[in-house]
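Entry: Proteasome subunit beta
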Amino acid sequence: MSSPTEINGAACIAMVGKGCVGIAADTRLGMQAMTVGTDFQKIFKMHDRLYVGLPGLATDVHTISATMRFKLNLFKLREERDIEPKAFSTLISNTLYEKRFAPWFVEPVVAGLDKDGAPFISAMDLIGAECFAKDFVVSGTCPDNMYGMCESMYKPDQEPEALFETLAQCLLSAVDRDAISGWGGIVHIITADGVTSRRLRGRPD
């Protein structure tokens, strides 16, 4: 493997819909080509309208998720409100950049709705360089596959059900062409009324 981010394998997509946003990731935990687990959490709830996907080295996934939970608890105690998605994206970007000389090997994907209900997505590399988009962002070990599927299937202003179907098909089709990610997935659709989470069954090979 050329990078520590490719040791465990991962695939993560965030996509914008009409008044909603979705984030999906696979559930495989591997040691290169060997599958260690099939129910590894890569998407974490920050609050009711904000989720973050953390594809990358499994140990750093746990470290970053715990670090961001700690920082968000401090933020809520001080500000007495939930953090906005764009501010959270900046916060996690700064957290990664602080460790740029000995980085955490995760490439986060942020998805959420702001206080006005507008969708927000972003992705970043392991030193926190942010990438913003109005349609979709991808991260993990099979970005070329995910980009190809998303570009083929994405349509603007999709309703929540259509967005779920698009995300599910993009994720499953992409990981079928990557040997170190897959074994199903999970999709979260975030709307103003709440979050719908569904598990996907993928090829067990």
